[in-house]
Amino acid sequence: MTSDDVRLIADIGGTNARFALLSLEQGVHRQIVLPCADYDEIVVAMKAYLGMVGDPVVKEAAIAIATAVVGDSVKMTNHHWSFSIETLKQQMAFDKLIVKNDFTALAMSIPKLSKSDFVQVGGNTDSQLITPLGIVGAGTGLGVSGLIPYGDIWIPLEGEGGHSTVSPSNEREVDIIKVCWKQYPHVSAERLVSGMGLQNLYSAICELENVEPECLSPREISVLGISNANPHCAEALDTFCGLLGSVAGDLALTLGAYRGVYIGGGIVPQLGSYFEQSSFRKRFEAKGRFQQHLAEVPVFVINAENPALYGIGEAFSLS
Ligand SMILES: Nc1ncnc2c1ncn2[C@@H]1O[C@H](COP(=O)(O)OP(=O)(O)OP(=O)(O)O)[C@@H](O)[C@H]1O
């Protein structure tokens, strides 16, 4: 790459397609977020973005996308876009096109961010342990990844942990999951810990309370929950935070991520101090004989804007 070269980078979620340019001189710049729903195909959104930033000559690109990337064919989990990597590369006349899972990219961003990009929620940071880091985040879906230390570098994991089976921690959650089973034979963590998850939780709670649910967006549920203006939204939001705590604690135990678990995605950073006071931390630690152990593990909410763009840029040096 020379100082004049410009690369295209993107973080494509089920709702938002975030684009930017990457160059040696300017780093990540010209960030624009486009609604996926406004474009029929990813190639149209990519061309629209490049048009918005003056159609620079771009020969290399790296895309982080919310799905499993296995082979040439990519199909998003929570949006209708699908494409062949090779065909997209030809359509865009790129010499190189890298495609990675979006939470792998988010994981790669962690070492590039600064302290001020994180808000700590419990645990302590005195530990000198060298352990993996966990990364989990709720947005349109639920993404999960990890960073494994290997000498001086970090190796990011590429998995689909959001689709692991959700586990209830109390009788109310058992009742909620029983309601969800009527709709989904497999209730994954993503079905309850995501934007759609807030809606599923709210509907299930209304059904259990014999109340007709209103048609509310995830944002409306969280706003009504935080202000306590609607008790069913308040319960849905607190259950969401508790279940996210369970998932994050499971991730810490599974990876041995004792140096920290990082929380990304579009929802939690918008909950502010509510999240710190929610059931999240209690449930993160509620792991029976490992409770004391988890009490030490710090959790960090990632507050940086579009952090996965900084991570996907790293893919050029790894490929
Ligand atoms: N304040 C909020 N409270 C609750 N949900 C919200 C809030 N703001 C946005 N959301 C929900 O978050 C989701 C979008 O999150 P995000 O920006 O992480 O999307 P994305 O990157 O497109 O998703 P993903 O990567 O998970 O596919 C939508 O479901 C939206 O309704």
TrEMBL record:
SUPFAM superfamilies: Actin-like ATPase domain (SSF53067)
Domain of life: Bacteria
GO process terms (BP): glycolytic process
EC number(s) recorded for this UniProt protein: 2.7.1.2
Pfam families: Glucokinase (PF02685)
Keywords: ATP-binding, Cytoplasm, Glycolysis, Kinase, Nucleotide-binding, Transferase
Chief site of localization: cytoplasm
EC class: transferase
Molecular function GO labels: ATP binding; D-glucose binding; glucokinase activity
Annotated family: Belongs to the bacterial glucokinase family.
Catalysis performed (reactions): D-glucose + ATP = D-glucose 6-phosphate + ADP + H(+)
Protein name, as recorded: Glucokinase
Subcellular location: Cytoplasm
Recorded GO CC terms: cytosol
Matches recorded under PANTHER family: GLUCOKINASE
Chain sites annotated for binding ATP: A10, D11, I12, G13, G14, T15
